[in-house]
Predict the structure.
Amino acid sequence: GKPNYKILMKLDEVYLKAIFAPEHGFAGDVSAGQKVDDQKVDDLPLIYSLYGNTKKPTPEMLEGLDLIIYDIQDIGARFYTYISTLGLVMEAAAEAEIPVMVLDRPNPLGGEQIEGPILNMKFKSFVGMYPIPSRYGLTIGELAKMIVGEKWIEAISQLTVIEMQGWKRSMYFDETGLTWIKPSPNISDLETAIFYPGMCLIEGTNVSEGRGTYQPFKKVGAPWYHNDITKDMNGMKLKGVLFKETKFKPKSIIGMSKNPKYLDEKGIGMEIIITDKLSYNSVETGVKFLYITQIMKAWEFSVKPESMNKLWGNNNLTRLLKGQNQLKKVLNEIKNDEALFREQRKPY
């Protein structure tokens, strides 16, 4: 529970020269997508933002450094941008001949289940930099080794991973005995993190993903939503999950959501209730929800192709939601990618 920078600043043999902040800022309380400026806080060194005009550290920022330590809690989803920042930092460090040390942390979603398609590198972006599935089942240290081992970054850094003690692949975060501290403003608990790999896809449409409420990704909907969608979702009898009719009105919440979709509009929608986290598949849930919504509310529903393609990792889901693909085909492609990645990640 103690901030790492405070510990480092008390050590005689350590001189903390710079701090680098990813998306959501140094304190993790800035809304998603909001640019962050460099900061000067009290007696701390300068805090460089890597989510503003600069996403990759410049040579000037790295001047005089002997080592860069990466110690950030991830949530195990490809489009969670902290892992993109990791790759860019490792690349910049390699170019400056500075070693990188990753302090490993648990993957909150465990290390066994894999969900979603492998990113096609034609659709590479800051929300998807590596050819990995939506939910990849690696710790941040394992992923760092894979990024280097598979040469997914242009330069290869001198990488040291400090392993965890007592972590097992089967562990979700609630089995670690650690206290949940929000890794970003809208991931308030483990349950939200479990929803995220599939329900984040809703960001690529005109359906609200629940931002502007205190239950983002758990509640989804729109002013034009119809409760028959919720009934159909229950009718599919998906494993480990039930769906409930709900109502909500998105608000601007400081530090959580600035100007969310359908701001101050009354909406109806669906609340997701996990009954068994081990059998629940968020990506399958997200795909089937969007598919049913598109069929039932075709006149109101719309997809933003560029955004969806970046999140999904190819254009197959966009094509499905425009009536140019088959649901069965998309689900089969996911299964094939999951099996492929399960083998590919083994060395790491």
Observations:
- The mean pLDDT is 93.
- The two ends are 29 Å apart (CA to CA).
